[in-house]
Design a protein that fits this description.
456 residues, 62% helix, 6 strands
């Protein structure tokens, strides 16, 4: 319950063995400074035992009192500094930061030494004549230079995912920076309304990135791609919201979304997000839509040789998200607790740092995974790089299941659906964002290594 945007908690009743009790009297103490309310407290009195035939007499009283608390400081009492700034939180940030330093150094050393040896080996091969080269034992990522830039399957879906990930990434960092600078948590619903505005404003990024990539992959139905890209993530959000809303209405819950709000959201999607996405797609196709691979693509696809089981794309996909998840799962606990345990999350500086850590870890791990994939002469790197990094969202959803079972006291159809539907949307968006990080980093890496090696 909220009063003047201040949250209010009070005990409704309690259960003792087989007996049920309800508190029938509410005492509301309201503190004000000038003409502004700065604090509200509710206490309950008169515990009454109830059964199916009990008639309750509910009452309340309101007491007004002056306070010296300033209006801009009225949310300070709700900020649980002992929880969010606990030393475990600081330790997790420090641990993740040290992991980033170690991982970046390790990846840089491995790739620099390995790539240097690869370049030396390939330069020796270039000095051999054709007969010696045919008799030689050639292997490695150079052998697939004619297929590595071959467009992958389902180019429309892939470009939609990457475009959506670019939009979500930019919207997430913009929202975090706004929350840090503007203290959005001090007004009810301000974070949600700001998130909707930022997502709509970044729609051209979706159209530009998705449209350019779709054109580079040889796609011709750019209008369909634009429509799918503009409606994919909003469609997922609206579908889950309608499901939750349908159940909420059947339970007569206050969580039900008003019909006018649904109409407003639909209008935002149709009249703001869709046109901006189409504008971005037009610019993307015309500015960056021409593919410019450093190597020619062979007309006939090369056969992929057999390799060890741990080099298969399936194994890489499911293991690629473990370390990125490990770098953020402590922060996930604080975020989940603030959302599901009615705490106000305000340490967005921590969130910004964790976001940057996640970006670096995801990029490093995905590049290493794709390097090993290419070295096994498997050129199916587009979807593998995306899904390898996107599997972080899968592990977050598994953690959400654990949190629901062991950390919450939710039960019943409505609470269960409400929890898992929202966690599905969050995990899906998180996975798409991480997948975009991984794909774009691997794309830059692959273009770089093939552009610097001599290809006949």
């Amino acid at each position: 319950m909220y009063m003047d945007d201040l949250p209010i908690w009070a005990i409704v009743g309690e259960v003792s063995e087989a007996e049920f009790f309800v508190w029938t009297h509410r005492k509301i103490d309201i503190l004000y400074n000038g003409d502004r309310i700065v604090d509200i407290a509710v206490t309950t009195e008169q515990k009454t035992q109830v059964d199916k035939d009990t008639v309750l007499n509910l009452s309340y009283e309101v007491n007004w009192a002056k306070s010296e608390v300033k209006f801009e400081d009225r949310y300070n009492k709700y900020l649980d500094a002992s929880f969010f700034k606990h030393k475990i939180h600081w330790f997790s940030i420090f641990n993740s930061f040290m992991m980033v330093i170690f991982l970046v150094g390790l990846v840089a050393m491995i790739l620099m030494r390995t790539l240097k040896k690869d370049y030396q080996r390939y330069s020796k091969d270039d000095d051999l004549d054709d007969i010696e080269r045919d008799l030689g034992d050639e292997y490695g990522w150079k052998q697939i230079h004619g297929d590595v830039f071959r467009p992958g399957n389902h180019s429309l879906l892939f470009s939609t995912m990457v475009g959506t990930g670019c939009q979500l990434s930019l919207a997430a960092i913009a929202l975090i920076l706004l929350a840090v600078s503007e203290k959005l948590w001090t007004e009810r619903g301000s974070i949600l309304s700001t998130a909707i505005f930022v997502y709509a404003a970044t729609a051209p990024i979706n159209g530009y990135c998705g449209g350019a990539l779709y054109s580079q992959l040889g796609g011709r139905r750019w209008i369909r791609q634009c429509l799918v890209g503009a409606s994919f993530f909003p469609g997922v959000v609206c579908s889950t919201s309608f499901l939750i809303n349908f159940i909420a209405i059947s339970y007569h819950s206050a969580k039900a979304i008003p019909f006018t709000t649904m109409i407003a959201i639909a209008a935002i999607c149709l009249f703001i997000i869709l046109p901006l996405t189409m504008v971005g797609a037009v610019f993307g196709r015309n500015i960056s839509g021409t593919p410019q691979p450093p190597c020619r693509i062979n007309p006939v696809p090369r056969q992929i040789p057999e390799k060890k089981w741990f080099m298969e794309p399936t194994f890489i996909i499911f293991t690629g998200g473990i370390l990125p998840f490990g770098s953020v799962f402590i922060e996930m606990y604080f975020i989940f607790t603030s959302f599901w345990a009615y705490k106000i999350y305000y340490v967005y500086g921590f969130m910004l740092l964790v976001y940057l850590i996640l970006l670096v870890v995801t990029v490093c791990i995905t590049i290493v995974c794709i390097y090993f994939l290419l070295n096994s002469e498997d050129y199916r790197w587009q979807w593998t790089s995306f899904l390898s990094a996107a599997s972080t969202g899968f592990y977050i959803y598994l953690y959400a299941i654990y949190y629901f079972i062991f950390k919450t006291k939710m039960y019943g159809l409505f609470q269960t659906v409400f929890y898992f539907a929202n966690m599905f949307v969050f995990s899906l968006g998180f996975g798409i964002m991480c997948g975009t990080f991984g794909y774009l980093a691997c794309r830059l890496f692959i273009y770089k290594i093939y552009a610097t090696v001599k290809i006949d």
